[in-house]
Amino acid sequence: MAQRVRKAVLPVAGLGTRFLPATKAMAKEMLTVVDRPLIQYAVEECLAAGIEEFVFVTGRNKGAIEDHFDHAYELETTLAQRGNKRVELKQAEQATIKPGNAIFTRQQKPLGLGHAVWCARHWIGREPFAVLLPDELMVSSPTCTAQLVAAHEKTGGNVVAVMNVPREQTKSYGIVAIKTEKDGLAEMTGIVEKPKPDEAPSTLAWIGRSILMPEVFDHLDRHEVGAGGEIQLTEAMAKLIGTQPFHAMRYTGGRYDCGNRLGFLEANVAVALGRKDTASETRALLERLLKG
Ligand code: G1P
Protein backbone atom coordinates (compact mmCIF):
# COMPACT_ATOMS: atom_id res chain seq x y z
CA MET A 1 0.00 0.00 0.00
CA ALA A 2 1.28 3.48 -0.84
CA GLN A 3 2.48 5.57 2.09
CA ARG A 4 0.13 8.47 2.88
CA VAL A 5 1.19 11.90 1.59
CA ARG A 6 1.31 14.16 4.65
CA LYS A 7 3.76 16.90 3.70
CA ALA A 8 4.14 19.54 1.02
CA VAL A 9 7.09 21.63 -0.10
CA LEU A 10 6.24 25.12 -1.30
CA PRO A 11 9.21 26.80 -3.01
CA VAL A 12 8.68 30.54 -2.54
CA ALA A 13 12.16 32.02 -2.80
CA GLY A 14 11.75 33.55 -6.30
CA LEU A 15 12.27 37.29 -6.72
CA GLY A 16 9.15 37.95 -8.81
CA THR A 17 10.95 40.29 -11.20
CA ARG A 18 8.07 40.08 -13.69
CA PHE A 19 5.89 41.95 -11.22
CA LEU A 20 8.17 44.85 -10.40
CA PRO A 21 7.59 47.31 -8.90
CA ALA A 22 4.81 45.46 -6.99
CA THR A 23 7.32 42.90 -5.73
CA LYS A 24 10.01 45.36 -4.71
CA ALA A 25 9.23 45.01 -1.00
CA MET A 26 6.56 42.31 -1.14
CA ALA A 27 6.67 38.57 -1.84
CA LYS A 28 5.11 37.71 -5.21
CA GLU A 29 3.25 34.87 -3.47
CA MET A 30 1.36 37.54 -1.49
CA LEU A 31 -0.15 39.02 -4.67
CA THR A 32 -3.90 38.79 -4.27
CA VAL A 33 -6.36 36.90 -6.41
CA VAL A 34 -9.78 38.37 -5.47
CA ASP A 35 -9.38 38.32 -1.69
CA ARG A 36 -6.57 35.95 -0.78
CA PRO A 37 -2.89 35.76 -1.59
CA LEU A 38 -1.66 33.20 -4.10
CA ILE A 39 0.12 31.23 -1.41
CA GLN A 40 -3.16 30.66 0.44
CA TYR A 41 -4.65 28.95 -2.61
CA ALA A 42 -1.73 26.50 -2.65
CA VAL A 43 -2.11 25.78 1.08
CA GLU A 44 -5.88 25.30 0.74
CA GLU A 45 -5.30 22.99 -2.24
CA CYS A 46 -3.08 20.83 0.01
CA LEU A 47 -5.51 20.85 2.95
CA ALA A 48 -8.27 19.65 0.61
CA ALA A 49 -5.96 16.75 -0.30
CA GLY A 50 -5.41 15.78 3.35
CA ILE A 51 -1.91 17.34 3.51
CA GLU A 52 -1.41 19.33 6.70
CA GLU A 53 2.35 19.83 7.07
CA PHE A 54 4.17 22.47 5.08
CA VAL A 55 7.77 23.33 4.33
CA PHE A 56 8.06 26.80 2.84
CA VAL A 57 11.41 27.36 1.15
CA THR A 58 11.73 31.11 1.37
CA GLY A 59 14.26 33.87 0.75
CA ARG A 60 14.81 37.43 1.88
CA ASN A 61 11.71 39.70 1.85
CA LYS A 62 9.35 36.75 2.37
CA GLY A 63 8.47 37.37 6.03
CA ALA A 64 4.88 38.30 5.17
CA ILE A 65 4.18 34.69 4.19
CA GLU A 66 5.05 33.49 7.70
CA ASP A 67 2.95 36.26 9.25
CA HIS A 68 0.03 35.46 6.97
CA PHE A 69 -0.38 31.93 8.32
CA ASP A 70 0.05 32.98 11.95
CA HIS A 71 -2.73 34.16 14.25
CA ALA A 72 -3.11 37.93 13.90
CA TYR A 73 -3.75 38.54 17.58
CA GLU A 74 -4.55 42.29 17.52
CA LEU A 75 -6.74 42.00 14.42
CA GLU A 76 -8.64 38.95 15.67
CA THR A 77 -9.16 40.39 19.16
CA THR A 78 -10.48 43.64 17.69
CA LEU A 79 -12.83 41.82 15.32
CA ALA A 80 -14.09 39.56 18.14
CA GLN A 81 -14.81 42.60 20.36
CA ARG A 82 -16.81 44.29 17.60
CA GLY A 83 -19.50 41.59 17.66
CA ASN A 84 -20.74 42.32 14.11
CA LYS A 85 -17.50 41.17 12.44
CA ARG A 86 -17.96 37.41 12.70
CA VAL A 87 -17.51 36.75 8.97
CA GLU A 88 -14.32 38.82 8.86
CA LEU A 89 -13.02 37.09 11.98
CA LYS A 90 -13.61 33.69 10.40
CA GLN A 91 -11.81 34.78 7.24
CA ALA A 92 -8.77 35.90 9.23
CA GLU A 93 -8.76 32.73 11.33
CA GLN A 94 -9.11 30.51 8.28
CA ALA A 95 -5.74 31.68 6.97
CA THR A 96 -3.76 29.98 9.73
CA ILE A 97 -1.83 26.73 9.77
CA LYS A 98 -2.09 24.43 12.80
CA PRO A 99 0.58 25.03 15.48
CA GLY A 100 3.83 23.29 14.63
CA ASN A 101 2.71 22.32 11.12
CA ALA A 102 4.72 24.87 9.12
CA ILE A 103 8.46 25.15 8.70
CA PHE A 104 10.14 28.12 7.04
CA THR A 105 13.63 27.51 5.74
CA ARG A 106 15.67 29.75 3.48
CA GLN A 107 17.22 28.95 0.16
CA GLN A 108 20.27 31.10 0.67
CA LYS A 109 21.35 31.22 -2.97
CA PRO A 110 19.15 31.12 -6.09
CA LEU A 111 20.63 27.89 -7.48
CA GLY A 112 17.45 26.55 -9.08
CA LEU A 113 14.20 24.78 -8.25
CA GLY A 114 15.94 21.46 -7.59
CA HIS A 115 18.12 23.17 -5.01
CA ALA A 116 15.09 24.88 -3.43
CA VAL A 117 13.32 21.54 -2.97
CA TRP A 118 16.55 19.96 -1.68
CA CYS A 119 16.61 22.62 1.07
CA ALA A 120 13.47 20.92 2.49
CA ARG A 121 15.06 17.44 2.69
CA HIS A 122 15.49 17.19 6.48
CA TRP A 123 11.89 18.21 7.10
CA ILE A 124 10.52 15.72 4.61
CA GLY A 125 12.61 12.74 5.67
CA ARG A 126 11.95 9.45 3.88
CA GLU A 127 8.32 9.76 2.84
CA PRO A 128 6.43 10.77 -0.30
CA PHE A 129 5.67 14.49 -0.48
CA ALA A 130 3.87 17.02 -2.63
CA VAL A 131 5.58 19.89 -4.43
CA LEU A 132 3.46 22.88 -5.46
CA LEU A 133 4.70 25.93 -7.31
CA PRO A 134 2.35 28.59 -5.96
CA ASP A 135 2.70 30.80 -9.08
CA GLU A 136 0.46 28.32 -10.79
CA LEU A 137 -3.11 28.64 -9.54
CA MET A 138 -5.26 25.55 -10.04
CA VAL A 139 -9.03 25.60 -9.78
CA SER A 140 -10.81 22.24 -9.77
CA SER A 141 -12.79 19.89 -7.60
CA PRO A 142 -11.23 17.64 -6.44
CA THR A 143 -8.11 19.82 -6.34
CA CYS A 144 -5.15 19.07 -8.59
CA THR A 145 -3.11 17.91 -5.58
CA ALA A 146 -5.98 15.70 -4.36
CA GLN A 147 -6.09 14.08 -7.81
CA LEU A 148 -2.32 13.49 -7.65
CA VAL A 149 -2.61 11.98 -4.17
CA ALA A 150 -5.31 9.60 -5.47
CA ALA A 151 -3.05 8.66 -8.41
CA HIS A 152 -0.13 8.10 -6.01
CA GLU A 153 -2.30 5.80 -3.90
CA LYS A 154 -3.03 3.79 -7.06
CA THR A 155 0.51 3.65 -8.48
CA GLY A 156 2.58 3.84 -5.28
CA GLY A 157 5.18 6.18 -6.80
CA ASN A 158 5.92 9.57 -8.34
CA VAL A 159 3.14 11.41 -10.17
CA VAL A 160 3.34 14.77 -11.91
CA ALA A 161 0.46 16.82 -13.32
CA VAL A 162 0.73 17.69 -17.01
CA MET A 163 -1.22 19.70 -19.57
CA ASN A 164 -0.87 20.18 -23.31
CA VAL A 165 0.77 23.46 -24.32
CA PRO A 166 1.29 24.97 -27.78
CA ARG A 167 4.55 23.55 -29.26
CA GLU A 168 6.21 26.99 -29.38
CA GLN A 169 5.91 27.13 -25.56
CA THR A 170 7.85 23.94 -24.73
CA LYS A 171 10.90 26.09 -23.95
CA SER A 172 9.12 27.42 -20.86
CA TYR A 173 8.37 24.06 -19.23
CA GLY A 174 9.55 20.65 -18.18
CA ILE A 175 8.21 18.46 -21.01
CA VAL A 176 7.42 14.79 -20.46
CA ALA A 177 7.75 11.72 -22.66
CA ILE A 178 5.13 9.06 -22.02
CA LYS A 179 4.08 5.62 -23.15
CA THR A 180 0.61 4.06 -23.00
CA GLU A 181 -1.96 6.25 -21.32
CA LYS A 182 -4.98 4.89 -19.46
CA ASP A 183 -7.70 6.98 -17.78
CA GLY A 184 -5.55 10.13 -17.91
CA LEU A 185 -2.55 8.41 -16.30
CA ALA A 186 0.53 7.53 -18.35
CA GLU A 187 3.77 5.83 -17.52
CA MET A 188 6.60 8.31 -18.06
CA THR A 189 9.74 7.51 -20.01
CA GLY A 190 11.44 10.87 -19.64
CA ILE A 191 11.22 14.55 -18.74
CA VAL A 192 13.32 17.33 -20.30
CA GLU A 193 13.70 20.82 -18.87
CA LYS A 194 12.70 23.59 -21.31
CA PRO A 195 13.45 21.89 -24.64
CA LYS A 196 13.34 23.83 -27.92
CA PRO A 197 10.05 23.18 -29.76
CA ASP A 198 11.71 20.98 -32.39
CA GLU A 199 13.50 18.93 -29.72
CA ALA A 200 10.60 18.46 -27.29
CA PRO A 201 9.53 14.82 -26.78
CA SER A 202 5.85 15.91 -26.65
CA THR A 203 3.79 18.98 -25.86
CA LEU A 204 2.82 17.75 -22.39
CA ALA A 205 4.15 20.22 -19.85
CA TRP A 206 4.68 19.68 -16.14
CA ILE A 207 2.51 22.36 -14.54
CA GLY A 208 4.13 22.68 -11.15
CA ARG A 209 2.21 20.04 -9.16
CA SER A 210 3.63 16.68 -8.20
CA ILE A 211 3.94 13.91 -5.67
CA LEU A 212 7.55 12.82 -5.40
CA MET A 213 9.27 9.95 -3.65
CA PRO A 214 12.06 10.81 -1.18
CA GLU A 215 14.67 9.11 -3.43
CA VAL A 216 14.62 12.33 -5.50
CA PHE A 217 16.81 13.81 -2.74
CA ASP A 218 19.50 11.20 -3.44
CA HIS A 219 19.89 12.78 -6.88
CA LEU A 220 19.48 16.38 -5.70
CA ASP A 221 22.22 15.71 -3.11
CA ARG A 222 24.73 15.68 -5.97
CA HIS A 223 23.99 19.32 -6.85
CA GLU A 224 24.37 18.65 -10.56
CA VAL A 225 23.97 21.83 -12.59
CA GLY A 226 21.76 21.36 -15.64
CA ALA A 227 19.61 23.36 -18.06
CA GLY A 228 19.99 27.12 -17.73
CA GLY A 229 22.96 26.66 -15.38
CA GLU A 230 20.62 25.70 -12.51
CA ILE A 231 20.02 22.64 -10.35
CA GLN A 232 16.81 21.41 -11.96
CA LEU A 233 14.10 19.42 -10.18
CA THR A 234 12.97 17.89 -13.47
CA GLU A 235 16.48 16.54 -14.10
CA ALA A 236 16.48 14.78 -10.71
CA MET A 237 13.00 13.44 -11.55
CA ALA A 238 14.35 12.12 -14.87
CA LYS A 239 16.91 10.03 -12.98
CA LEU A 240 14.15 8.29 -10.98
CA ILE A 241 12.30 7.18 -14.11
CA GLY A 242 12.85 3.48 -14.65
CA THR A 243 13.91 2.91 -11.04
CA GLN A 244 10.46 3.36 -9.49
CA PRO A 245 6.89 3.98 -10.70
CA PHE A 246 6.70 7.38 -12.41
CA HIS A 247 3.49 8.65 -13.99
CA ALA A 248 2.13 11.76 -15.66
CA MET A 249 -1.45 12.67 -14.79
CA ARG A 250 -3.35 14.69 -17.36
CA TYR A 251 -4.95 17.56 -15.43
CA THR A 252 -8.13 18.95 -16.94
CA GLY A 253 -9.16 21.65 -14.47
CA GLY A 254 -8.56 25.40 -14.52
CA ARG A 255 -4.93 26.53 -14.53
CA TYR A 256 -3.74 30.11 -14.36
CA ASP A 257 -0.08 30.98 -14.68
CA CYS A 258 0.17 33.81 -12.19
CA GLY A 259 3.89 34.13 -12.90
CA ASN A 260 3.03 36.58 -15.67
CA ARG A 261 0.81 39.64 -15.69
CA LEU A 262 -1.85 38.45 -18.10
CA GLY A 263 -2.19 35.04 -16.43
CA PHE A 264 -2.55 36.80 -13.09
CA LEU A 265 -5.23 39.10 -14.45
CA GLU A 266 -7.04 36.11 -15.98
CA ALA A 267 -6.89 34.30 -12.62
CA ASN A 268 -8.55 37.25 -10.90
CA VAL A 269 -11.37 37.42 -13.44
CA ALA A 270 -11.85 33.64 -13.61
CA VAL A 271 -11.89 33.14 -9.84
CA ALA A 272 -14.30 36.09 -9.40
CA LEU A 273 -16.59 34.65 -12.11
CA GLY A 274 -16.43 31.21 -10.50
CA ARG A 275 -17.39 32.30 -6.99
CA LYS A 276 -21.03 32.60 -5.93
CA ASP A 277 -20.43 35.78 -3.93
CA THR A 278 -18.74 37.67 -6.77
CA ALA A 279 -19.94 36.06 -10.05
CA SER A 280 -22.89 38.22 -11.06
CA GLU A 281 -21.31 41.54 -10.08
CA THR A 282 -18.12 40.64 -11.93
CA ARG A 283 -20.05 39.66 -15.04
CA ALA A 284 -21.96 42.97 -14.99
CA LEU A 285 -18.72 44.87 -14.44
CA LEU A 286 -17.00 43.17 -17.37
CA GLU A 287 -19.97 43.79 -19.66
CA ARG A 288 -19.96 47.46 -18.69
CA LEU A 289 -16.21 47.82 -19.29
CA LEU A 290 -16.32 45.98 -22.61
CA LYS A 291 -19.14 48.23 -23.89
CA GLY A 292 -16.69 51.08 -23.35
C1 G1P B 1 9.48 25.54 -13.46
C2 G1P B 1 10.05 24.16 -13.82
C3 G1P B 1 9.44 23.63 -15.10
C4 G1P B 1 7.91 23.61 -14.95
C5 G1P B 1 7.40 25.02 -14.60
C6 G1P B 1 5.90 25.00 -14.32
O1 G1P B 1 9.93 26.47 -14.42
O2 G1P B 1 11.46 24.26 -13.92
O3 G1P B 1 9.89 22.32 -15.33
O4 G1P B 1 7.31 23.14 -16.16
O5 G1P B 1 8.07 25.52 -13.43
O6 G1P B 1 5.43 26.27 -14.04
P1 G1P B 1 9.88 28.08 -14.14
O7 G1P B 1 8.50 28.51 -14.52
O8 G1P B 1 10.18 28.28 -12.72
O9 G1P B 1 10.92 28.66 -15.06
Note the main attributes of this structure:
single chain; 292 residues; alpha/beta; Spore Coat Polysaccharide Biosynthesis Protein SpsA, Chain A; 9-stranded mixed β-sheet; 11 helices; 33% helix; binds 1-O-phosphono-alpha-D-glucopyranose
Describe the fold and architecture.
The structure is a single chain. The protein is α/β, with parallel strands linked by helices. The protein has one domain: Spore Coat Polysaccharide Biosynthesis Protein SpsA, Chain A (Alpha-Beta Complex), CATH 3.90.550. The chain has 11 helices and 13 strands. It has a 9-stranded mixed sheet. A hairpin with a 2-residue loop joins strand 2 (about 30-35) and strand 3 (about 35). It is globular. 1-O-phosphono-alpha-D-glucopyranose binds near residues 133 and 173. 1-O-phosphono-alpha-D-glucopyranose binds near residues 133, 205 and 207.
